[in-house]
Amino acid sequence: MGFGIASGILGGLSRLMSETNGPNTTSKVLTGVQSVVQISAGITDVSLQGSHMITKHSLQASSELLSQFGATDGEIFKEILRALGLNNEFSDSLLAVAKLISSFQAGIDLTNISNNLAILLALQPPLEIASAEGDIRTTEEVVKYLPWAMSVFDKHVRKFVGLQEKHSDEEQDHLDYGIPFIAHICGIPDSDVLTYSTASEVYSPAHFVALDRKANAVVISFRGTLSIADSITDLLCHHEPYSFLGKAGVVHQGFAESARRLGPLLEPLVQRALLQLEWHAEDKTIVLTGHSLGAAVATSLTAYWIASEAFSGVRIRAYAFASPCVFSREIATHPALQNSIYSIVIGDDLVPRLCRGSAWYLRAKVLLLQQLLQENPQEYHRLVQLAQRPEADPLEKLTAYYSLEQKEDAVDERLYPAGLVLYSESPGRRGLCSSKMLRATPQEHLSDILLSPNMFSDHLPSVYMELYPKV
């Protein structure tokens, strides 16, 4: 089921990108990813078919036995996962993600999704990024820790994240892995990388703690999504109540739990690291950084430590690149976070706009288009024709787009990247000046998913790394 959803969406997006802009790099990449998904689905199907004959009767017997004791389907699923050697927490998390995906895809017709997405792409309002007058930052102020955020990625993907370099064979052998690679990219001695955790678990992505002696800072860098456990942390996206310095709101469950677990675990190590810096406490800084999932964990942990006053008198700063949505607006825009967190967003990046609220909002529009095709084909085809006319009145398009609303349904509250959001154009659209400037923009400009040929490619670590050489 999951592979079919992924393949259908990726294929639909690839086709609509090609139809809209002609064959391009993004559509080719999406087509390639779709092929991988389809291959994976085939392998999985074959594996499942092969194991079906072996397990059919034993699983059926287990199911009947558990059902007699009042077990639900979810509990049966968890028992199967436990039998495969997975712990209770991982099983519970996997089940929660499965339920989320199932509820999202329910009712969506994948055979026509490319047409519906193409309609929404053509009708959606244009992106307008506004910045407060005078609130424009140079890249020098905020991208210093980009290499620190990217070096935590596994050695095998360093080219993918834009950190490829050429060395002699002897140097390459030394720099090809772990702490030497991190130290080289960050420009620090190996001994200043204090710890490097390569293991990724649910709620705990790979990370390292290091000293930036030039800035008199302790730096913690969290890796972006690169494992099944990381993906589960991303997708445990139910909202839970959250309070921060007198403000009440909600938070992404997975990211909040990451902070609750990593905060007490890392605090003693960071306290000891601070003692290795030479200046007084008021001159010291704790820097948290990361890309994607790593950015979200850096964000939530920054809020956790500020609220707990674990490091009283020490500045805490977070540089969050391509951060997912973490907090509701009340928390995300809190002055304490605005002064502590920089959330950097490039172009049409999907991830800083993707939360339960925005995903279900887009889903509702797709379902309404499906319903319209069935109940009023004439009106559906009018929308198709409107979407295909470049010269159509923008107001007419906007009216059509917002007519696809289910006002009687409550939309999940939006979550946002936290702190000061700094925006840069996509690489292909940057002018000479804008390439070195990041504009502060309100969180509300990230409220909805923006369908775009660049919505996936703008999230790539290598795209964010393009900000760094400009310095």
Walk me through the topology.
Layout: H1 2-21, H2 25-68, H3 73-83, H4 88-105, H5 113-123, E1 136-138, H6 139-142, H7 146-151, H8 169-175, H9 178-186, E2 193-197, E3 207-212, E4 217-222, H10 228-235, E5 239-244, E6 247-252, H11 253-274, E7 285-291, H12 293-308, E8 315-321, H13 329-332, H14 335-338, E9 341-346, H15 356-375, H16 377-388, H17 394-403, E10 420-424, E11 437-440, H18 461-465
Parallel strand pairs: 4-7, 7-8, 8-9, 9-10
Antiparallel strand pairs: 1-11, 2-3, 3-4, 5-6, 10-11
Helix pairs in contact: 1-2, 1-5, 2-3, 3-4, 4-10, 5-15, 5-16, 11-12, 15-16
Query: Which sequence of strands runs across the widest sheet?
Result: 1-11-10-9-8-7-4-3-2
**Share of helical residues:** 40-55%
**Portion in beta strands:** 5-15%
Radius of gyration: 24 Å
Main β-sheet description: 9 strands, mixed
Structural class: alpha/beta
Helix count from the secondary structure assignment: 18
What low-confidence regions span 5 or more consecutive residues with pLDDT below 50?
Answer: 1-71
**What oligomeric arrangement do these chains adopt?**
single chain
Arithmetic mean pLDDT: 79
Tell me the distance between the termini.
46 Å
Task: Identify the overall geometry.
Answer: elongated
Number of strands: 11
List the helices and strands in order.
HHHHHEHHHHEEEHEEHEHEHHEHHHEEH
State the gist of this model.
It is built from 18 helices and eleven strands. The chain has 471 residues and is an alpha/beta fold.
